[in-house]
Amino acid sequence: MINYTTKLILLQAKMTRFIAIVLTTILIITLTFNVPIMGTNNSEILWDTWGVPHIYASDSTSLFKAFGWAQTKSHGNLILRLYGQARGKAAEYWGINYLESDQYVTTMGISVRAQQWYEQQTPEIRQYLDSFAQGINNYVAQYPQEINEDLKVVLPITGTDILAHFQRVIHFHFLTNPQAIAAGQIIPPQGGSNGWVISPKKSASGKAMLLANPHLPWSDFYLWYEAQLNAPGVNMYGAALVGMPILALGFNDNLGWTVTVNPIDGADTYQLKIQDDGYLWEGKVKQFDTEIKKLKIRQTNGNYTELEFGVKHSVQGVITHQDKDYAYAVKIVGLDRPHGFKQLWEMAKATNLEEFEAGLKQLQIPLFNFLYADKKGQIFYLFNALVPIKSQGDWQYWQKIIPGDTSETLWTDYHAYEDLPRLVNPETGWLQNSNDPPWSNTFPPILKAEDFPPYLAPPSLGYAKNILRSQRSIQLLMESEKLSFDEMINKKFSSELLMADRILNILVSTTKALANPIGIEAAKVLEKWDHQTNANSRGAVLFTLWALTLESKGLFSKPWNPENPLETPSGLADINTALGVLEGVAAQVKLLYGSLDVPWGEVVRMRVGNQDLPANGGPGILGSFQVLNIQATADKKFQVVFGDSFIAAVEFSDPIHAKVLNVYGNSTQPNSPHVGDQLSLYAQGKMRPVWRDKAEIEQHLELLDKL
Fold it and tell me: Record's PANTHER family (predicted)?
């Protein structure tokens, strides 16, 4: 007789066989008729007609995987090359042209530190990094024909590669500069940007507004990647630097933020006295810590050679170069702060200022101003930085080579969040930053340099490299009592050169009185010029080439004056030199282009992919708010290489009103229709509407990918 327990066991066995038969049947149907198994399609990517991925995922892990997949579709060749460089193995993969890059990465310990950082991540963030990497690997496995064969040697990508890429970009290019480090020079932060936040008090609609306007090179790891990321509790729109798994700027349903590069002392160079194969430290000889590193270099015939070199460390940091008597060590902030991605992820998910600041307070990102606005009408500014606590010296002192023979100059910790310049909801109704020190983030100024450590930042606006652009930013904000959304966009495309407003009258009048015929002809052209660098502006080429040539010689006679902070510097320092340079430039312009009043856009070109368009915008150092920096080309013209990149204008209405533009397009892959496809809008001073709702995205759908 079968008891109850035995019956139960037999029943369970039958059920198990039944479930197995059902699952087998489903699998056969799936394989035969290509029916998806429930739960395998965790994500879908809706690609709009501008090549922007709108990712919808069932969970955050799937979201990161889909984001890695999407970036590879848009920038796969570039990303694999960048990750290979971040490993310090690019010369091994692709030859001697990458040897200098590999030596820099290896000397700075980037790949080793990246592994250490990976092990220090929380389980959640480690999973997200792995998922982003898996998305990259999955795309290449699915579409191998889309990736250059020589780049596949980098695969598979790991979470450690992403952290190495982050370090290389943020700590060893934004904070520092490889060429300057090699020469033992002081290293300023790299990059630029404009950023505005407008409170309801200043806004024509009564809603807070945000303008995000970073300026970076139009190539390599500086490129922005636009995307929308959706998962439970997440709906972000914005841009990430290519190869990064998290948006660096953008907005969600409640708030938005942007970043600008801030002037911080993020790297100090120390001079060490060499003695007896060591260096003097606290009155005694201390030995360098030395490692032997090896790099493989791929030859054109496929064989390899090997380079062996030593890397020395002092108590301050890695030795970057040395001569007979001295060695030079660099100490860089933030190498002990591995949780930058965690901080950015939490900030991007924030729903209010308190939550956003909770992310910032982690101080894992070593630099960048943050400007913030939200639906509640709050606006906020933070001079975000890892600022070392120092026992002596001011800003000017720490820009020099520092004596390295004593612990008195060796910093070991950073200032707390509460010590940083910060401002919320000022009476002026606006906050701005154009890479100037924090003391000019609104006007009249509220934050005072004397209330902070003297080494924290430059002591005044007068120290800003792009002082004219910063002053132009403040002017544009102050000239309107109320600012509408459309006015904000129009002001963003202002290409007026503030330098011309300051000195053109005296240049023209002096030239007319004293110059040779070619100079007098140039003066007549400049007198008619509209001070703009628009495509049809005549006189802009002549003035810009003159100003850029003269700028290094000290252009202004009157330096910046705190009593007149928005109108100085001014005046011409050396009339004779100014006239001589103008006549020389005028002769060159006439020879090359046949006319002194050649239109700006005929000479200055925007070239991306197959696009070759006349430029609108000029150098920020000359006071243009619409920033395009240029370099000479082989065809005797000039090409834009740096400047306006991803632009976002956001009004925190309900629903949110936003326009964006990724100036050079959202892809670099060969044959992609989105290489340079937004350049024509930029040339017209236009931006695109943001499509955030799924129904609206589907109306502009180019492609649907299910993962």
Answer: ACYL-HOMOSERINE LACTONE ACYLASE PVDQ, PEPTIDASE S45 PENICILLIN AMIDASE
Residue pLDDT, tens place only, 6-25? 333 333 444 444 434 333 33
- Asked which of 560, 594, 624 is the last residue of a domain, the reply is 624
The pLDDT value given to residue 7: 36
**Distant-in-sequence, close-in-space partners of 225: CB < 8 Å, separation ≥ 6:** 71, 74, 75, 239, 240, 241, 242, 244, 666
Highest mean pLDDT out of 40-44, 188-192, 630-634: 630-634
For residues 23 and 99, membership in a common domain is answered with: no
pLDDT of residue 115: 98
CB contact set of 72 (below 8 Å; sequence gap of 6+): 79, 135, 136, 139, 140, 147
Residue 546 lies in a domain: yes
CB 278 within 8 A of CB 286: yes
Residue at 217 is within a domain = yes
Q: Are residues 474 and 586 in the same domain?
A: no
Two structure tokens written together for 499: 């330098």
List the domain range (segments joined by +) for residue 219.
Answer: 192-266+338-385+420-492
CA distance 52 to 44: 13
* SS3 per residue for 259-303: EECCCCCCEEEEEEEEECCEEEECCEEEECEEEEEEEEEECCCCC
Task: Round to the nearest angstrom and report the end-to-end CA distance of the chain.
Answer: 54
Give catalytic status of residue 193 as yes or no.
Answer: yes
pLDDT of residue 16: 41
* Integer Cα distance of 609 and 665 in angstroms: 10
Q: What is the average per-residue pLDDT within 382-395?
A: 97
Rounded CA separation 528/596 (Å): 12
- Taking each helix axis from N to C end, the angle separating 340-348 and 123-142, rounded to the nearest 10 degrees, works out to 90
User: Residue 241 belongs to a domain with what CATH number?
Assistant: 3.60.20.10
What's 109's domain CATH number? 1.10.439.10
Give yes or no: residues 201 and 344 share one domain: yes
From the list 60, 111, 193, 667, the catalytic residue is 193
Compute, in degrees rounded to 10, the torsion defined by CA atoms 118, 121, 126, 130: -20
- Same domain? For 432 and 356 the reply is yes
The answer on 226 and 87 residing in a single domain is no
**Are 328 and 378 contained in the same domain?**
no
* pLDDT range class, residue 614, cuts 50, 70, 90: very high
Q: Give the model's pLDDT for residue 625.
A: 98
Cβ atoms of 471 and 496 closer than 8 Å: no
Written as six digits, the tokens of 461 are 């606006």
pLDDT band at 192; cut points 50, 70, 90: confident
- 3-7 own/partner pairs: CB under 8 Å, 24+ apart: none
Query: pLDDT tens-digit profile of 101-131?
Result: 999 999 999 999 999 999 999 999 999 999 9
CATH of the domain at 581: 1.10.1400.10
150 is in an annotated binding site: no
Residues 72 and 160 in one domain: yes
Q: Look up the CATH number of the domain holding residue 283.
A: 2.30.120.10
Q: Cβ distance 16 to 670 under 8 Å?
A: no
Q: What is the pLDDT of residue 27?
A: 33
Query: Residue 609: left if φ>0, alpha if ψ -120 to 50, beta else—which one?
Result: left
Q: Domains in the chain: how many in total?
A: 5
644 is in an annotated binding site: no
Task: Give the confidence band of 76 by pLDDT, cuts at 50, 70, 90.
Answer: very high
CA-wise closest residue to 148 among 664, 676, 705, 671: 671
Q: Is the pLDDT of residue 35 over 60?
A: no
Does residue 691 form part of some domain? no
Q: How many helices (H) and strands (E) does the chain have?
A: 20, 30
- Verify that 349 and 438 share a domain, yes or no: yes
Q: Which of 182, 212, 231 is the last residue of a domain?
A: 182
Q: What's the CA angle centered on 63, arms 37 and 343, to 5 degrees? A: 155
Half-sphere exposure of 492 (CA within 13 A, CB side): 34
Does 46 reside within a domain? no
